[in-house]
Write a structure and sequence with these properties.
The protein contains 31 helices and 26 strands. The chain is α/β, with parallel strands linked by helices. The strands form five sheets. It has a nine-stranded mixed β-sheet with strand order 9-8-7-10-11-13-12-14-15, with helices on both faces. Strands 1-2-3-4-5-6 form a six-stranded mixed β-sheet, with helices on both faces. Strands 16-24-20-22 form a four-stranded antiparallel β-sheet. The radius of gyration is 33 Å and the shape is globular. The chain starts with 6 loop residues before the first helix and ends with a helix.
Length: about 900
């Protein structure tokens, strides 16, 4: 390598490089020259380190492919033509990792289309992603200056995702072999967790390094015929104290430690191996299991049992990032603050040490134990900081720290408790916690030079296999002020629940409180509240965001808040981490609550970007809709709360088998029939309303018998409609069809006779305004919309305001992530105060200005016009003027600087109007 370039030289070189390659676009023609010059900008001769078109195999297909640019152990580049989808490039890059040797796994994965760079730093946990364009390269050289000899931060693992992929693949091979051997699911679970303990243990110093592999390699036959018997000997030896082992035990087996802890106690059938499965086990032994964090490795291996899930790494478990988002404000942040305050006082440090040892933790849906593992790791880390600080303070005073029994450690696995329905994840959780404890001890040895020897195991976490909704949690851990309940219970909507799960939910809520809209996860909320009672313990769950939206809020949170519980902090909706590119993100929240609000200050974590980082803000109180506001729920009501709002109703429902509708190909035929043409009307469903799609229907409320006689088209359609209804499974529809004169009518008619407001049943969440439209009575609105009489345009103005859409987003439910209009839950609860006649005219006029702005863009549909990234400026200005007028009606002279303030004031209005309504009743 030539002499190291200065940073100024590298910055100048990359600036010239960016300018020279600003118009490059062809993957095949330009890739190698592009990257050769890229490396040269950092003073690197690519020929010395880099391989172009490196042969590698695809994990998903097994087919051969080529890595565009590969620097073994450092860098992998997947290059695409300009404008290509880099998410697909990411899939391809990660797909190659499984075929690489461990020593060659890259620290950086770069996706590039000549203009855009996406850099995944997989040398840290969790991985960090950087995105920038070519012209910004001179300002981002810090990502690559290691090539020029500059120092970079040490990595935590070689590549977390690559290591996880390999680990799952190794265990999957063993699982498949055992499943083929007809072992029961229970015995497979026991066997694999034992193997996992051995593989991880010999790579992390818990066992003699390489001993397990050496026994298999040296003592068993190459054809695998005696491997099962030898593994049984290993299991039995590990469960036997050294003094109780036979003198005739093989010398290698005698080198195994006594583990105890019940991991190897149960006698299970002998597994049968052949040459292939023996080689698979040896291959698993060769993998560096120390690369896998116990915080995620249990969840990774849960996918071993599902061949379909093996590629979906990271998709179905709670990541460390999200776990820390829960446990941080729940207890960890407070403890760390107390450490800072106590760090110069021996007395206060010891008091804090005792405090953290007094906490007890329960995850009532613990899965593979990742919440418990991360919690335990963080407590042990804090404990080590206390020990270090005490050593420094006491050494400074001429004393030494007396660590006492077990080196003075007070944080223990006995503080960790879990409930899990399935055996496999429950066993994984136990092993993962043992390994987390061992890693904490290794870190302690590295830091203070001494640590306890945990073998044989005498203390363990308590993981109970049972159905958490039907089980008394006090039998696992008695409730108390020092108990912390935290986890990620399963969230399953009503349409996906089994009958058994519905039965469980009804039982835990009770006959009087159960509501059909409740998600399965709600059972854990009410169970936790019942369990904690009036104790001052803390509770926090990661859950689907729907528990704080729409009709679930009142039946879920009403009973909990009514018992004196308060929401302490909440992470508003964010995207649950999913490493699988192209997969739909799950939208979740984190809600912490306690009896009486034990944390004191209330904090909301907002997500300006749903996939970004949270921004905390302290608030006066947190409403169950996860906004600042009173602890109240907004139950649906049959009539508008405000007497100044008109009523809405579903549009007209045809129930016709298509008989009322006219396709574009049929339109000319109907219009050429003088009798039929009289009854052709424009028709709008949600799609037609939002996208300006022309559609027509027959509207025959005032059908003239003479026209029916003169039109074969009309007679044919009426016969079709009647036949469809008579064949219906619904008795009421068949009865309706048998009544004279009903075939010409929609099954349910709600068409206004004046200008009206047409409201789509759902709109995209990212819309800044709810995209309703005002129509004339000649346009028929179907039942995929709601309608309301609106002769003066006042209703249109209200629903088009920011005040309305914020209420909708806060109170309303979702269809997937889309906003779902709800008559009783949203419209009828809108807290619009008294409106004077003059104010009503001003609001209607402002709404008419919005309609006029829309008419300036006849070529755009509502969906196009209200794209947040492309709204016409005149429409934006019209809405701003409307908001000013509507906000004045809602809030008078109060300042409304942002949406957070707006919704807080709306909750105050709701509370006032609801109290007045109840008093009047």
């Amino acid at each position: 390598m030539a002499s190291k370039l200065s940073l100024a030289e590298i910055r100048a070189n990359t600036g010239r490089f960016a300018k020279r390659w600003s118009d490059a676009s062809r993957e095949n023609a330009d890739t190698q020259m592009f990257w050769a010059e890229f490396f040269a900008a950092f003073g690197i001769d690519a020929r010395r380190f880099v391989v172009f078109e490196h042969h590698a195999s695809r994990f998903t297909t097994g087919r051969s492919g080529r890595i565009d640019v590969f620097w073994p152990g450092e860098l992998l580049v997947e290059q695409k033509s300009r404008g290509a989808d880099l998410r697909k490039a990411a899939d391809q890059a990660y797909d190659y990792l499984d075929s690489l040797d461990d020593k060659d796994l890259p620290r950086l994965i770069v996706l590039c289309d000549f203009n855009r760079f996406v850099v995944h730093d997989v040398s840290v946990t969790p991985k960090v992603t950087h995105e920038f364009d070519l012209k910004s390269l001179p300002n981002r050289i810090g990502l690559f200056t290691w090539m020029a000899g500059y120092t970079r931060a040490p990595s935590v693992v070689v590549s977390e995702q690559a290591a996880n992929a390999k680990a799952v693949n190794k265990m999957a091979q063993l699982y498949d072999a055992l499943a083929d051997d007809k072992l029961s699911d229970h015995h497979v679970s026991v066997f694999l967790t034992r193997i996992l303990f051995l593989l991880f243990g010999e790579d992390t110093g818990l066992l003699e390094r390489g001993l397990f592999r050496q026994i298999i390699s040296d003592k068993t036959a190459p054809d695998g015929s005696d491997l099962g018997a030898w593994i049984q000997h290993i299991f039995q030896t590990l469960d036997t104290a050294q003094n109780d082992r036979s003198a005739r035990t093989d010398e290698m087996l005698l080198r195994l430690p006594y583990v105890n802890g019940s991991i190897f106690t149960e006698v299970i059938p002998t597994a049968h191996f052949d040459q292939t499965t023996r080689e698979a086990l040896l291959s698993a032994c060769d993998f560096e299991w120390g690369l896998i964090s116990p915080a995620v490795f249990g969840s990774m291996f849960q996918s071993v049992k599902s061949k379909e899930a093996r590629r979906a790494l990271g998709e179905h478990y709670t990541t460390e990032r999200d776990i820390l988002r829960a446990i941080g404000p729940l207890f960890l942040d407070q403890l760390q603050s107390e450490f800072k305050a106590a760090q110069f006082s021996v007395k206060n440090l010891n008091a804090l040490w005792n405090k953290i040892a007094s906490y007890k933790f329960l995850d009532p849906a613990c899965g593979c134990g990742n919440f418990l593992v991360v919690t335990y790791r963080e407590l042990r880390t804090l404990e080590l900081r206390i020990i270090e600080q005490l050593q420094q303070l006491q050494a400074g005073g001429g004393q030494t720290v007396l660590l006492g029994e077990e080196m003075g450690l007070k944080v223990s696995l006995a503080q960790m408790h879990g409930i899990e329905l399935e055996e496999w994840p429950a066993r994984i959780a136990e092993v993962a916690l043992f390994i987390a404890d061992h890693q904490a001890n290794r870190h302690m040895m590295e830091t203070v030079g001494t640590a306890p020897d945990r073998l044989p195991l005498t203390t363990s976490a308590k993981i109970v296999r049972d159905n958490a909704l039907g089980f008394d949690w006090n039998l696992v851990l008695p409730a108390g002020d020092d108990v912390v309940v935290v986890g990620n219970p399963p969230f399953i909507g009503i349409s996906l629940r089994t009958d058994q799960q519905t039965t469980e939910l009804k039982a835990v809520w009770g006959k009087n409180l159960y509501h059909g809209s409740l998600d399965y996860v709600s059972g854990w909320y009410i169970k936790a509240a019942n369990y904690m009672g009036t104790h001052k313990g803390r509770i926090a769950f990661v859950s689907t965001s729907s528990i704080c939206q729409g009709e679930q809020v009142a039946p879920l949170w009403g009973p909990i808040l009514g018992r004196g519980f308060e929401i302490d902090f909440a992470h508003r909706t964010f995207a649950w981490t999913s490493e699988a590119s192209g997969k739909a993100s799950v939208h979740v929240v984190i809600v912490a609550f306690s009896h009486g609000g034990v944390l004191g200050r209330k904090v909301l974590f907002d997500y300006p970007s749903i996939k970004g980082e949270p921004q905390p803000r302290e608030v006066s109180n947190i409403a169950p809709y996860l906004v600042e506001g009173p602890s109240l729920v907004v139950p649906p009501q049959s009539k508008p709360l405000s007497r100044f709002l008109g009523e809405v109703r579903y549009g007209s429902k045809p129930t016709d088998g298509g008989g009322f509708f006219i396709s574009p190909d049929e339109y000319a035929e109907f219009m050429s029939d003088p009798a039929a043409a009289k009854y052709v009307r424009p028709f709008v469903g949600t799609k037609e309303l939002l996208h300006d799609i022309p559609r027509w229907c027959l509207w025959m409320v005032d059908l003239d018998p003479a026209d029916l006689k003169n039109s074969a088209l009309l007679r044919e359609r009426l016969d079709q409609i009647k036949a469809f209804r008579l064949a219906s499974d619904a008795a009421s529809t068949r009865e309706y069809a048998s009544m004279a004169g009903t075939a010409r009518l929609f099954r349910q008619i709600a068409q206004p006779e004046t200008n009206y407001l047409c409201i789509p049943i759902h709109v995209l969440e990212r819309r800044l305004f709810f995209t309703a439209k005002r129509l004339g009575p000649e346009t028929i609105a179907g039942n995929a919309n709601f309608v309301a009489d609106d002769p003066d345009g006042f209703m249109f103005a209200i629903i088009s305001s920011t005040a309305y859409v914020i209420w909708q987003k806060t109170i309303g439910g979702r269809i997937k992530s889309d906003l779902r209009f709800n008559k009783q839950g949203v419209w009828n609860t809108l807290p619009l105060p008294a409106v004077t006649p003059e104010m009503r005219k001003e609001i209607a006029a402002a709404g008419q200005a919005v309609q006029a702005a829309r008419e300036n863009h006849p070529g755009l549909s509502l969906a196009q016009m209200y794209d947040p990234d492309a709204m016409p400026l005149d429409l934006i200005r019209a809405h701003a003027a409307l908001d000013k007028t509507v906000d004045h009606a809602f809030f008078g002279r109060k300042s409304v600087p942002n949406d957070e303030r707006r919704i807080t004031l709306m909750f105050e209005l709701y509370e006032t109007l609801a109290k007045a309504q109840n008093k009047a009743a």
